[in-house]
Amino acid sequence: MEERVYFTGNLALGKEQFTIARIFGAYYELYSPSTLYVRAVLKGKLRLKQSDERHPFVVGDEVFAESGSGDWVILEKEERKNFLARKSDHGDSHVLCANLDLLVILASLKDPETKDGFIDRLLVAAFPTEITPLIVFTKADLVPDEIRLQKETFYQSLGYEVMSISTENQDSMEHLFLKLRGKRSFLCGNSGVGKSTLLNQLTKKNDQRVNDISSGTRKGKHTTTNSLAVFLDDGTVVIDSPGVKEWGILHLTKTELMESFPELRSAKVDCKYEYCCDFGEDCNLLRVFEKDLSESRRKSLESMLESLEKPHRVTRRDHWSQSVTKRY
């Protein structure tokens, strides 16, 4: 990315509201429509404040900062309307961004193909936050139409909004741009799904460095290393994320996990006990799990339930835990 030129402090400006655009070390890049970009540091008392999170301030946070003779100083943070987090062990949770309208799940149809389990984990993570998920299948030009339609139809049948795009099809890109317009969206996906290429087209610039796919492993090379908010016209904000291999869901409870599956959520209406999820006698959830869940969704749920039980397990793509019915 090109070197940013920051607006330095002016004591006459006083306190102003900004959005955190990027975090690098002890410094924060802030943005406001009037002042544009400034570099800031935390006020002393905020640096000493204890937090359960890995970092108490994240990209997307709304903050107030005051100008000085050099760097600006962050004074306080507004309450978040929501935030997106992941947790892969019993340590602190990792909040990636805050105050979102959309979670854009970028799933590549080929080179590399995104596994259904990854999509399902992101859908689960979004459910308690009430952030709207949008599943976007990328590289649609690399697979036959029937494969693309099968993927789209499956997740649409669960009630999710789905679309497919290709950088070779400008109409599909424009359709996505319309969905993002005026909203604050978080782009998330495995390495190599095309996040940086998409952002380049959004900004009409080449600010995001794009890496090729490794010809030996067919896996993506990591390009983005930290979350970064890009501010476009009409109030559109796009937050680019680092590529991730697996989304940890240990910050969720078992009940939240079960209810995040639409298939089980609808079945819960007929359950005898509220907030049970113990697969007891005459359990309607158990019936749906055994008979109505697709194989891929059942494997996703089993994997996530096992994550809650054994957070330090070694993941193997060709091995799944024993049936839920044997464990509960």
Shape: globular
- The secondary-structure element order is EEEHEEEEEHEHEHEHEEHHHHH
Main beta-sheet strand count, sense and barrel state: 6 strands, mixed
Order of the strands making up the biggest sheet = 10-9-8-11-13-12
Distance between the termini: 51 Å
Number of strands: 13
- Percentage beta strand: 15-25%
Range of helix content: 25-40%
State the helix count.
10
Overall pLDDT metric: 80
Provide a descriptive summary of the structure in words.
There is one protein chain. A six-stranded mixed beta sheet has the order 10-9-8-11-13-12, sandwiched between helices. It is built from ten helices and 13 strands. Residues 206-225 and 314-328 have low confidence and may be disordered. By secondary structure, the protein is of the alpha/beta class. Helix 2 crosses helix 9.
Brief account:
The protein is of the alpha/beta class and 328 residues long. It contains ten helices and 13 strands. β6 (83-86) and β7 form a beta hairpin.
Q: Main attributes?
A:
alpha/beta, disordered C terminus, 13 strands, globular, 23% strand, 6-stranded mixed beta sheet, 328 residues
Record the SSE blueprint.
Elements (H helix, E strand, L loop, with lengths): L14 E10 L2 E6 L3 E7 L1 H5 L13 E5 L5 E6 L5 E4 L7 E5 L3 E7 L7 H11 L5 E7 L6 H13 L3 E4 L5 H11 L3 E5 L6 H9 L24 E4 L5 E4 L13 H6 L2 H6 L16 H8 L3 H15 L14 H4 L1
Parallel strand pairs: 3-5, 8-9, 8-11, 9-10, 11-13
Antiparallel strand pairs: 1-2, 1-4, 2-3, 4-5, 6-7, 12-13
Helix pairs in contact: 2-9
